[in-house]
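Researcher: Here's a chain I'd like modeled. Treat it as a single chain, no partners, no ligands.
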Amino acid sequence: MLHKIDWYIIKKFLVFDVSENIDDFMSKDVPLKAIVFDYYLNFIPYFANLFSGLFTFIAVIYFTSKLAYNTEIIAILSSGVSFNRLMRPYMVGASVIVLFSYLLGNYVIPPANKKKVDFRNTYIGTRKAGTAHNIHQQIEPGIFVYMTSYNASNDVGYKFTIEHFVDRKLVSKLTADYIKWDREKKKWIIHEFNIRTISGYTEKVTHGIEKDTLLNMVPQDYQVVENVVETMTLPKLNESIDNLKLRGVNTTDYEIEKHKRRAGPFSAFILTIIGVSLASRKIKGGIGFHLGLGLLLSFSYILFMQVTTVFATSDLLAPWVAMWIPNILYGGLAFYLYRRAAA
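Model: Modeled as a single isolated chain. Structure tokens:
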């Protein structure tokens, strides 16, 4: 359920985003229905999940502070209930949030993000068609392709080579002046090619002018679509990572997204422990001090997550390390505060 703070943030974001995109919407004659239902409506689950940890943290601090300043927590602890037992309902609630956040982030939100990306591709155009150089990929086990350059605007790859290895031995090699994608047949057309077939110590060379072929690659492999990893459900994301690794393509962005979806929900446990540990004792400054300290910690966590993401993108840290470092460090802080509060 979305509360006032959720709608407030969403409203502020939408106002800012509309001002940023209004020129594109008007120049491309984008239908109002598509803007509302395909673009902005799909931001709601995304932002609800993105800030779920923050909202949980603030909620925990707020109502725990009220319990503490009404001396209810003192009464509970004085009755013989340990601090560990007091934490049980908090952790149960955090478990529910973690589960829902994980399911939303991996299975519900990606299809919504796909509608947003499709909207931008259709009406604004974020697919970048350009020229890639020196392409070397394994498209299937034992099958490697090489292209000096690939022009994505007309789907043509120049100085094309495909090599087939069996038990690490080259059995055939095709070289061609260029290869072009036939958009009607959905096939690759190889032009001006030579094929070397190797069998033991014998070699056969054949020449051809034009040849249709099916290859485990498509033009989209050489076109850049912004935020495409956000549109993939977890099974699709894992499949894409395996496929790209097979081809020798950098998977950093995909790995970052995968581990972010795991580390993000888990933060609800850490922030809940920190929130309860901070707010369960009366201190000078009251609820306002608790909320201020809680906001500082939560926003520092989000900022730290962004910083480590940059390190992962720059290949300075492994994606899984970068995504879990904030949880590890703030988990240590949570442990310290918890032990201090329970003492």
